[in-house]
Amino acid sequence: MKINLVNENSVIIYFSDAVSIETADRIAYACHLLRNGLSTMLSDIVPSYTSILLSCNLRKTGLQGFVLEVKKVLEQIEAHNIETPAAKQITLPVYYGEEVALDHAQISEHAGLSFSEVVKLHTSECYRVFAIGFAPGFAYLGNTPESIKMPRKMTPRTKVPKGSVAIADQQTAVYPRTSPGGWQVIGRTPVNLLDFSQDNLSQFSVGEQVRFEAIDRATFLAMGGEL
Amino acid sequence: MTLHIKQAGVLSLLQDLGRYGHQDVGVTPGGPMDSHAFHWANKLLDNPANSAQIEITMGPFQAHFQAETSFSVCGADVELKLNGISLSPWRSWQAQKGDLLEIGYPSKGLRSYLAVAGGFQVSETLGSASSVVRDQLGGLDQQGHKLSDGDVIPYQSVKRHYTRTVTTQFIPDFNKMIRLGVLPTYQFHEFSHAARRTLFNELYTVTPEMDRMGYRLKGKAIEVKQQNFISEGIVLGAIQIPANGQPIVLMRDRQTIGGYPKIGCICQRDLNLLSQATPGTKIQFFEQDLYQAEAELQQTQQYFFEGE
Hints:
The structure holds two protein chains of two kinds. Chain A is of the alpha+beta class.
């Protein structure tokens, strides 16, 4: 574990160099402890695959004092057993038609497989929510099967349509709203993933298991999907 | 007791200091692009530091005061008129019922901040009035929409029985060449010596692809080796280097997590200058000591939040 300064009021804690279920559990547990332990000096917390970014309120603490408090809280992790949260599983319908799979040709070419084989592989996996970020409700899911993993685009798209399911390296994500992004688009879901009127803003929560299920064009449209 | 908008201009948004504590589900903080101008506009009126204002990007902007108030305008170099009479920005003024305020297209800089005594009275979403268009959050309708002609924004009719001016030394010069301090954090030390030399020795140019989310810059490509990078939390001012080597500086409406390597962060003091920069502005980066920047920011916050 390593704590680095980031800017005037932020630090980042790295838990590991590699993504794993164990690291994700440690991070979820550390977030819980940090929220309680730092209370009002904490202004924001951003967990991700292998790190937690923490920002402090400079009117309550200085950066050096904040780092000391963070270290104190983290010492508790070693002293406690980490319970694996009971994983909830959701199934998300996805239309993999070429009209919405904007990068189908590049993904097929990169994998050396037909697109139907790519889809078969993509729907075979049980994914896990490792982090939520980038945009409200944007969940980072792992792991995309090795044989269809693919790097991000060299230059990000300025507009990725709402509901797009996309891959980058061994990650898969769903764009809850239209936004810029550099991921390779493989399909689109008709499900609305974000609702600010709900207490729980996002359909996803960290630790959840997710499966993708292929649906046809008619089902996609009937479920309210937009082309 | 409202401000009646006659002309909202290119992009006018209600903003307070931002929406904090929801970045764990990906909700961006938002807030004023130029926090220096924002803080002064409230300070001139003795408003609480977080009082909602209108951020006017480019303009032109026209509005009628429907009740007596005191107001201030800080930010870009603009022609400012009340009932046709020229006023200067960076100070507070009195307005009577029915007065027409006009803010012209900026001659230098990009954004102006309009504050009224007591602040604009706007409902909050997730603890803030800040409008984030992309996330459909905050603002007058709480759907994140930018302000439009005919919108009516409530305020309390409070009058300050004095007017104030910001001291000249705190009024920035919006030059076509700006110097921005870089905190050597994130993956700074993982970039090659050549890449770091390029960052500090070359001039970069602000491109037209700039908004509240990020500023894309153009210049000599910064060598970047590692592209398979694990996504991590992003702070205000982070400098992402995508594979094409052209820097993207992340601003108020940035995403909360991202997977491009970052060569450091622009210190918050200098981000205010960048937020007023128009396409074509030249940028010279220099290395900024982090603890010095922290001390400065802490002092700034103590001043503007005094007594709160």
